[in-house]
Amino acid sequence: MTSRRDLLKSAVLGGGATVVAATALGALGPEAAFATTAFQVEPGTPDPDFAEGRIRSIKENTLLVLGSNMVFHTIRVVDGTSLWKLGPVGFDQARPGDGLYARGVRMPDGMLAAESVWLNIVNIKGHITNITAQKLHLDHHGQEVLCHVVPGKSVAIHSDAPPSADLSMLKVSQHVQILGAWRPDTNEVDIATVFSPH
């Protein structure tokens, strides 16, 4: 059986001629962006198959990303790459200025062949200070974050209950965790999931 890594390598080294559906690679959910590093990476060392930063430019299927450590990453999106921006999206939804997390396979030239790319993804905790029509106001370490409910996309998970589009059980002063998509250069987030412990 061909591994995910082999599929990615062949897609890049073959000049993109290999067509692989994202499901063949096993498209990863947004929670995987915050997963621990690969087991083969020594604790305290950077994961060579991970990159983060903001997109500086896009040329064909390649992203030039400036990491928070001021190191540039070249990331290649191939036919099998899964992309997330508040949900599964096409490559045409990537924009310069977007924040990015990417996992994939590091190629000999240093380029990262992306298995999964998460655009503008955030995972924040705080308490709700106000609830207005289609918005939650969140206090995140003393900073206000305005969280937008997106019809047809936003769901809440209360304790161990299944996800629900009904966010009416959320209350002011409640502590929550929000997984969503940041609106670049603002304090605003579009909600994918609100996790409520109670």
Characterization of this structure:
There is one protein chain. With 198 residues, this protein is mostly beta strands. It has two domains: 4-119, Nucleic acid-binding proteins (OB fold (Dihydrolipoamide Acetyltransferase, E2P)), CATH 2.40.50.140; 121-196, OB fold (Dihydrolipoamide Acetyltransferase, E2P) (Beta Barrel), CATH 2.40.50. It has two helices and twelve strands, in the order ααββββββββββββ. The chain has helices spanning 4-13, 22-25; strands at residues 50-59, 62-66, 72-84, 88-89, 99-106, 112-119, 121-132, 135-140, 143-148, 155-158, 175-182, 188-196. Strands 1-2-3-6-5 form a five-stranded mixed barrel. The chain has a five-stranded mixed beta barrel with strand order 7-8-9-12-11. It is elongated and about 50 Å long. 31% of the residues are buried.
CATH topology (fold) name of the largest domain: OB fold (Dihydrolipoamide Acetyltransferase, E2P)
Helix content: under 10%
Number of strands: 12
Q: How many strands, what sense, and barrel or not for the largest sheet?
A: 5 strands, mixed, barrel
Quickly count the helices. Answer: 2
CA-based gyration radius: 18 Å
The level-1 CATH class of the largest domain: Mainly Beta
What is the structural class? Answer: mainly beta
Widest beta sheet: strand line-up:
1-2-3-6-5
- CATH H-level superfamily title of the largest domain: Nucleic acid-binding proteins
Write the element-wise H/E pattern from the N-terminal end onward: HHEEEEEEEEEEEE
- Determine the N-to-C terminus distance: 43 Å
Low-confidence stretches: 7-27
Which architecture of the largest domain does the CATH hierarchy give at level 2? Beta Barrel
* Strand residues, percent: over 45%
Average pLDDT metric:
82
- Taken together, the total number of domains comes to 2
Overall body shape? elongated
